[in-house]
């Protein structure tokens, strides 16, 4: 099997965590005799510095010509004063739109060995296993008109939130299909008590749910959902929501795992799948070798599952991450209250590679008898 991956390490801790994800993929390829071709390109702040654009044409062309894109993170404080369309983040948003993936899957899971590092009591977060299905190409992020206007010495800024029935239908179907393979429950999150977009969202999701009689649907307002998510995370299975709500709720859901560094994502439904950890470039810890690579590594697993059709290999990587946590190795963000040993970004990467190899050896031995 040949599989072409465009790797976009990006800014801050992006390159640190992405290189560990690539290392794990190389290990999987070596074990199974697959050929994964990696091609690295610039995006975000680094691309602005080198090419004067947060998404150079060369980067975009490479992404469009690949089987999947693996991204680290973009953004750095020195670009925070640029207008929205010139910032590193604009490069990521342009890429998302160009690749066409509208369904961003963001799992948030409580891992038993590190349950102690969550500010939630283990009896609250323990066993929680949520899949946030975030609409990724609509809403306030892309709505027109947008921008700054002003007269008489005052400035007005505006963004537009809009959703069409078709945009809601397609993301709703992704959530119901996912729920079918999980515990059969979708919670749709909106602000239908105030927003027209949310009223259309709720109506449309309710209509689509009739095609999935085996899946239970409930609705929550986003403000209440924010509370329930940490008060009783186990009440959730699949959370279906629009772009901005999904952005906010997924960072909040990281509290269930204990760190933003644990969360992975997959963006599917377009021509080329995009895989990136949920976290950002974390300028506060960049360059120290202490970033948690698990979210990036788990994103690589999602890539094998959704773009490579390699379910077994994806599961092996996920299991390997759990083994490393069970063995007690932790980056500082997941160390407090969990015991174990402090490990660097690259040590965790190396340990996951070892665990992947052991898991594959074990399966091989099992088949041999
Ligand atoms: P952030 O996610 O970068 O960091 C939030 C907090 O979580 C920080 O304290 C950070 O140290 C910690 N953290 C994040 N990832 C971690 C990891 N892997 N291991 C250990 N700790 C980790 O969010 P922010 O500080 O609000 O944003 C920083 C920059 O990243 C901004 O420019 C923002 O726009 C950008 N950003 C990019 C993406 C992306 O590229 N997908 C996502 C979110 C934010
Ligand atoms: C995320 C990030 C991005 C988003 C930014 C960097 C554009 O916060 O992937 O969660 O808001 O989607
Ligand atoms: Mn975010």
Q: Calculate the mean pLDDT score and round it.
A: 97
Q: How many runs of DSSP E, i.e. beta strands? A: 14
Following the backbone from N to C, one meets helices and strands in this order, namely EHEHHEHEHEEEHEHEHEHEEHHEEH
Termini separation (Å)?
Answer: 27 Å
Major sheet attributes: 10 strands, mixed
Shape: globular
Low-confidence stretches: none
Class of secondary structure makeup: alpha/beta
What are the salient characteristics of this protein?
single chain; 369 residues; alpha/beta; ten-stranded mixed sheet; two-stranded antiparallel sheet; 43% helix; 19% strand; globular; binds nicotinamide-adenine-dinucleotide; binds 3-isopropylmalic acid; binds manganese (II) ion
Descriptive overview:
With 369 residues, this protein is α/β, with parallel strands linked by helices. The model has no long low-confidence stretch (mean pLDDT 97). The protein contains 12 helices and 14 strands. 43% of the residues lie in helices and 19% in strands. The chain starts with a strand and ends with a helix. It has helices at 14-32, 44-51, 57-64, 88-99, 122-125, 165-180, 196-209, 222-231, 243-257, 294-306, 311-326, 345-368; strands spanning 2-10, 35-40, 68-73, 103-109, 129-135, 147-151, 154-158, 185-190, 216-221, 238-241, 266-268, 273-275, 329-330, 341-342. A hairpin with a 4-residue loop joins strand 11 (266-268) and strand 12 (273-275). It is globular. It has a 10-stranded mixed β-sheet, with helices on both faces. The structure holds nicotinamide-adenine-dinucleotide, 3-isopropylmalic acid and manganese (II) ion. Manganese (II) ion binds at residues 247, 251. 3-isopropylmalic acid binds at residues 75, 89, 92-93, 247, 278, 280.
């Amino acid at each position: 099997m040949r599989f072409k991956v465009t790797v976009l390490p990006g800014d801050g801790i992006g390159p640190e965590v992405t290189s560990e994800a690539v290392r794990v993929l190389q290990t999987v390829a070596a074990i199974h005799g697959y050929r994964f071709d990696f091609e690295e390109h610039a995006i975000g702040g680094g691309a602005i510095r080198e090419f004067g654009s947060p998404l150079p044409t060369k980067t975009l062309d490479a992404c469009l010509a690949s089987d999947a894109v693996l991204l680290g993170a973009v953004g750095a404080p020195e670009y925070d004063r640029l207008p929205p369309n010139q910032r590193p983040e604009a490069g990521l948003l342009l890429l998302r739109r160009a690749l066409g993936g509208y369904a961003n899957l963001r799992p948030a899971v409580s891992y038993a060995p590190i349950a102690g590092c969550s500010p939630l009591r283990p009896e609250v977060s323990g066993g929680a296993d949520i899949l946030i299905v975030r609409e990724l190409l609509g809403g306030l992020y892309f709505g027109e008109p947008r921008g700054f206007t002003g007269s008489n010495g005052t400035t007005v800024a505006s963004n537009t939130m809009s959703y069409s029935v078709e945009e809601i239908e397609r993301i709703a179907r992704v959530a119901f299909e996912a729920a079918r393979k999980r515990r059969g429950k979708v919670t749709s999150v909106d602000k239908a008590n105030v927003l027209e977009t949310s009223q259309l969202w709720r109506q449309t999701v309710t209509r689509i749910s009739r095609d999935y009689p085996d899946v239970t649907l409930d609705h929550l307002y986003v403000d209440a959902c924010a509370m329930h998510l940490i008060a009783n995370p186990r009440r959730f299975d699949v959370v279906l929501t629009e772009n901005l709500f999904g952005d906010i709720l997924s960072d909040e859901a990281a509290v269930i795992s204990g760190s933003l560094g644990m969360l992975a994502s997959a963006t599917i439904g377009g021509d080329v799948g995009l895989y990136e950890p949920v976290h950002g470039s974390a300028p506060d810890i960049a360059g120290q070798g202490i970033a948690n690579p698990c979210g990036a590594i788990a994103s690589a697993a999602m890539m094998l599952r959704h773009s490579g059709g390699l379910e077994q290999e994806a599961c092996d990587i996920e299991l390997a991450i759990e083994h490393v946590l069970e063995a007690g190795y932790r980056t500082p963000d997941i160390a407090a209250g969990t015991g174990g040993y402090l490990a660097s970004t690259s040590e965790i990467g190396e340990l996951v590679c070892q665990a992947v190899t052991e898991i594959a050896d074990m399966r091989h031995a099992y088949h041999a008898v």
